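anyone seen this seq b4? input:
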Amino acid sequence: MIDEGYIKYEAIWHPSSPFETSVTDSLIVHRQLMLKYDLIGAYPDGIGFGNISKRNGQSNSFVISGSATGSVPMLTSAHFSLVLKTDPILNKLWCTGPHIASSEAMSHATFYTILPHINAVIHVHHEKLWQKYLFTLPTTAAEATYGSPEMVKEIERLLSDPTVADGNMIFMAGHTDGIFAFGSDLEGISAKLIQLLSTL
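predicted toks r here
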């Protein structure tokens, strides 16, 4: 069953004008690349999937594609949010921008908080990749659903293993088709996902 499309955290969102294109240009380029390979998009029922983010400077804040933007054919700077702070214990997130942050923003925050060398995260969906590599590559527990405090804890657990942190990929057993890819830059993550597709 596809469990997708709504926010599970408490959002404190302060709407603002669209970001400068210099902030979002690289995110848009790689988001459109993921769309081309059907790693970001929408299911037949119209519910969008997939999101992309990059660290904001040297802080743990980050810019992420907005909630329910997977089905949008072409993103602009008006489709993003700057996540300023998260509290996984309270399941609370603070963001600003023209769009509220993605439902997966709490999970993205976990990568940036735990791994200082990580500067970008892409969450994609792909049925065949998911089926092939689930429990073969690092995988979260089936009880952890997307965007939940349990998913945050599972990501924390997996990233405590240096081999997982260096592997740049986590599969989500409790989120059908869901995969997290993370790394030092968007170019490397996109290339790794496309390379993984070639193994099918």
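The helical segments are 21-36, 105-114, 127-133, 149-159, 162-167, 186-197. The chain has a mean pLDDT of 96. kinda curious what u guys think
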